Amino acid sequence: MNLRRDVFQAIADPTRRAILLLVATQSMTAGAIASNFDTARPTVSKHLQILTECELLEQTQNGREIYYHINANKMKEVADFIEPFRQMWDDRFNKIETIMKKYKSK
Amino acid sequence: MERKTKINAETGKQELVITREFDLPLDLLFRAYIDPEIIEQWMGTKVLKFDCKKHGSYQLETTDPKGNKHGFNGVIHEFVPEKKISRTFEMENTPFGIQLEIYEFEPLTDETSKLTMHVIYESVEQRDQVLKLPFAQGINMAHNRIEEVVRQLK
Question: What is the pLDDT of residues B111-137, one digit of tens each?
Fold first, then answer.
């Protein structure tokens, strides 16, 4: 696996985001996914490979077909990445509140 | 838990909006942003210059635990008391560029108020880098913690 490939890079691409939306509700084969895009099939395959490498997608073998489905845990990790940033601001604002309450009583 | 601070950062945009409701009357909230002594308290930084008026500028400096100094500065473009401040903000010697910050202050009740911070970055990439900064630091801290634990095991 290419370690330089991170999940944020993966979801920065609009086609890859569209793929994630597609498979969010059902498992799909590469062919079924590709049929939703005008892009060439190998391009879609490359996107699927990247999403699989960074574990946003998982593969399941069903007979001769490989189905792609979403890795909910990894997706949650991505959704939470903004939380430390929010927490930092929340702490800062809480500090303002505490400090200014002292001025209030004066 | 109630989330008082909200962040709205749409994917693919070079801006974000931070909103927060304060358990403070409007005048006190506004004062926290314009009184250098108070800014030093909540930002944990030294205020070198703070000329809070249209075309005025400010300079801040923090010292990290290792003793390294970090500078911040910006120019104030719009200043409407208890209502609005538009200014630039720059973290010196970082690749984050210069951001435009629009602060809007509004009263909710006599005792509560709301701040809306609209921040615009030079590019989507820069915004995402800034967003990821505390996340990355969190991971680094976790790594350091793991290193510590491992060292103790030796």
Answer: 999 999 999 999 998 998 888 887 766
Contact B131 A85 (CB under 8 A): yes
- Domain with residue A49: its CATH number is 1.10.10.10
> Does B42 touch chain A if contact means CB atoms closer than 8 Å?
yes
**Smallest CA–CA separation between B152 and chain A, in Å?**
28
Q: What is the pTM of this model?
A: 0.70
B12 contacts chain A (CB < 8 A): yes
pLDDT single digits (tens) A10-51: 777 788 888 988 888 789 999 999 999 998 899 999 999 999
Residue A84, chain B, CB below 8 Å: the answer is yes
- Strand order from edge to edge, sheet including B15-22: B5-8, B15-22, B113-120, B98-107, B84-91, B69-80, B57-63, B46-50
| Total H helices, total E strands in chain A | 6, 3
Contacts of A81 in chain B (CB under 8 A): 131-132, 135
CATH superfamily of B5-153: START domain (3.30.530.20)
Q: What is the chain A residue with the closest CA to B28?
A: A100
Three-state secondary structure call for residue A70: strand
Strand residues in chain B grouped as ranges (E):
5-8, 15-22, 46-50, 57-63, 69-80, 84-91, 98-107, 113-120
- What is the distance in angstroms between the Cα of A76 and the nearest Cα belonging to chain B? 14
Query: What is the extent of the structural domain holding A71?
Result: 7-79
